[in-house]
Design the sequence.
C-alpha cells in the first residue's frame, strides 16, 4: 500500500526558508529569504491536511487551488503544480513574495487553528513558480486564434498587467499606457527589492511583451494623449491607474524641507538602488536617508517599506510613529518583526502634532491612548493632554496611505463618474462603468488595497470585456 504523502503536520514542524541574518541583510536590497531546496519544499507542502473545506483557498482573493498544488508539490509533480497555480493567478511568484499570507491563506489554515503551525503556503508558491522559470515551463502567451478587436489599458500595475495577460490569451490586441518608463507600477517602483527583486517583475514584463502586448511608456494621459483619443483607438478601455495621491499631514511646520512623501522616497530608492538610474534627488540627499535621523509616520505596509529602506541606506536611527498599538496596526506583523530585527524602533500610540526647523530638525509628538470604538469597530486614538515631546529628525517620511487622483478633471472627462471618495464608479466584479466600453479595476475602484486584489479585478474584468466584445460581434454579424 502506498505511503500517505500528505497529513504530515503532526510529525513535521512548520519551517520557513532560511532568513538571512539581520546584520547582513540590512546592508543590501536583496531578498531576505532563501529559496527552499526541493526536498524541503516537498516536506513542507506535505504538511497540508487536505481538509474538506480549504479555508486557505476561500480566504485567498484569487481562490487559488492551494491544496491541489501543495499535494502535487509534495509528490514531485512540480510542473503540474505550476500549471494549477498559474490557472488562477497571473503572477504567483510575485504573490508568493509580497502577499500578506499571515492575514489571508496562512492565517486561515486549518492546522494553524489546531495549534500545529500553518503550512508555509507563500514560500511553496514562490518555489513552484521560480522553478517553473528555471525549467523553461513559463512561455510567452500564444493565443489559439487572433482577434481583430483591441483593448487599451491605462496603467501598467498588477491589475492592468493581469488584464493584459488574460486578453492576449483570448487573442485580443492589447496596448498598455503608463506614465512611468518601466511597467509594473508599484511592483517596480513602490515595493523595495528586499521584498521583491526587480528582475522578477522585469521578467514578467518581457513575457507579456513577447506575447504581443504593446507598451506605450512615459505617457501621461491627459497631457501626452487624451482619454478620448485612447477611447477612439480601441474597442474597449480598462482604467487601472491605481491610487498615487499621498494623504497629507497638517500641523505647524508641515511644509518644511526634509518632510517627504513615501512614494517619492521609495521610487527614488528603487531607481537608484535596484536599477542604477541617476536620480538627482537621491544623489543630493533630499530623498536619501544616509547619515540621517529618520522618522516615518504611519503603520501600514508602505511605512514598513520606508523604515526598512532607510536602514539599508545607512540612517543613523529609524523610528516609526503609529497612533494605535501593535495589535491594531494595518501592516503585516511579519514585516514589523523583520523591521525590528533590522534595528527599527516603533513608537506605538504616538502621532505628530507639528514640526520644528527649516529644514526639519524635530517632530513634535503627542502620546495617544485607545478610547471607544469608532464606526469601523476599531478603538479610536485619543490625545493624552500635556504628553508632547520633541523627536529629533533630519528626514520625515509621510506614509499615511494613498487616495485617488481627480481623473475626470485631469483627463478632461467630467462624465467619468466617481464616488464621494474620488474612486471610479464601476460595477462589482465586471468593472463596467457608466461610459460605454470603459471599465475600471483595482485600487482606482476599491481604494488602496492589495496586489492580489488588483490581479483578481483584472482577471474578472476581462471576462466582462470578452462577453461585451462577443455581444457586439454577434450584433454586427446580424
Sequence:
Amino acid at each position: 500500500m502506498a505511503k500517505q504523502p500528505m497529513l504530515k503536520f503532526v510529525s513535521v514542524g512548520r519551517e520557513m526558508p532560511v532568513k538571512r541574518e539581520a546584520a547582513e541583510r540590512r546592508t543590501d536590497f536583496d531578498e531576505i529569504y532563501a529559496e527552499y531546496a526541493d526536498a524541503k519544499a516537498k516536506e513542507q507542502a506535505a504538511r497540508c491536511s487536505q481538509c474538506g473545506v480549504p479555508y486557505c483557498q476561500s480566504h485567498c482573493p484569487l481562490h487559488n487551488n492551494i491544496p491541489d498544488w501543495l499535494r502535487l508539490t509534495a509528490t514531485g509533480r512540480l510542473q503540474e503544480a505550476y500549471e494549477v497555480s498559474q490557472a488562477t493567478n497571473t503572477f504567483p511568484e510575485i504573490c508568493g513574495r509580497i502577499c500578506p499570507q499571515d492575514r489571508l491563506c496562512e492565517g486561515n489554515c486549518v492546522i494553524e487553528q489546531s495549534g500545529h503551525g500553518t503550512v508555509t503556503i507563500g514560500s511553496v508558491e514562490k518555489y513552484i513558480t521560480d522553478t517553473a522559470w528555471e525549467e523553461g515551463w513559463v512561455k510567452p502567451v500564444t493565443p489559439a486564434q487572433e482577434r481583430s478587436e483591441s483593448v487599451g489599458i491605462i496603467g501598467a500595475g498588477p491589475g492592468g498587467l493581469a488584464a493584459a495577460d488574460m486578453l492576449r490569451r483570448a487573442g485580443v490586441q492589447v496596448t498598455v499606457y503608463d506614465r512611468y518608463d518601466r511597467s509594473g507600477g508599484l511592483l517596480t517602483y513602490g515595493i523595495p527589492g528586499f521584498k521583491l527583486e526587480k528582475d522578477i517583475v522585469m521578467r514578467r514584463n518581457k513575457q507579456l511583451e513577447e506575447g504581443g502586448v504593446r507598451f506605450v511608456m512615459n505617457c501621461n494621459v491627459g497631457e501626452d494623449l487624451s482619454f478620448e483619443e485612447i477611447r477612439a483607438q480601441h474597442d474597449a478601455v480598462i482604467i487601472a491607474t491605481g491610487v498615487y495621491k499621498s494623504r497629507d499631514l497638517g500641523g505647524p511646520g508641515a511644509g518644511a524641507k526634509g518632510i517627504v512623501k513615501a512614494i517619492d522616497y521609495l521610487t527614488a530608492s528603487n531607481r537608484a538602488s535596484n536599477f542604477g538610474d541617476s536620480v538627482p534627488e537621491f544623489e543630493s540627499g533630499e530623498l536619501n536617508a544616509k547619515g540621517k535621523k529618520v522618522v516615518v509616520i504611519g503603520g501600514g505596509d508602505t511605512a514598513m517599506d520606508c523604515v526598512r529602506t532607510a536602514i539599508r541606506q545607512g540612517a543613523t536611527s529609524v523610528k516609526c510613529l503609529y497612533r494605535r498599538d501593535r495589535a491594531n496596526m494595518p501592516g503585516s506583523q511579519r514585516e514589523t518583526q523583520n523591521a525590528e530585527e533590522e534595528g527599527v524602533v516603533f513608537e506605538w500610540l504616538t502621532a505628530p502634532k507639528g514640526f520644528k526647523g527649516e529644514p526639519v530638525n524635530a517632530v513634535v509628538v503627542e502620546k495617544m491612548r485607545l478610547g471607544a470604538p469608532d464606526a469601523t469597530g476599531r478603538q479610536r486614538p485619543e490625545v493624552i493632554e500635556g504628553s508632547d515631546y520633541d523627536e529629533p529628525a533630519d528626514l520625515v517620511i509621510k506614509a499615511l496611505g494613498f487616495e485617488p487622483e481627480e481623473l475626470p478633471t485631469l483627463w478632461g472627462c467630467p462624465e467619468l463618474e466617481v464616488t464621494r471618495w474620488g474612486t471610479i464608479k464601476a460595477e462589482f466584479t465586471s468593472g463596467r462603468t457608466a461610459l460605454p466600453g470603459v471599465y475600471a479595476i483595482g485600487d482606482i475602484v476599491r481604494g488602496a488595497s492589495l496586489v492580489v486584489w488588483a490581479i483578481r479585478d483584472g482577471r474578472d474584468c476581462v471576462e466582462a470585456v470578452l462577453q461585451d466584445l462577443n455581444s457586439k460581434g454577434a450584433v454586427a454579424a446580424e
Q: What stands out?
A: The chain has a mean pLDDT of 94.
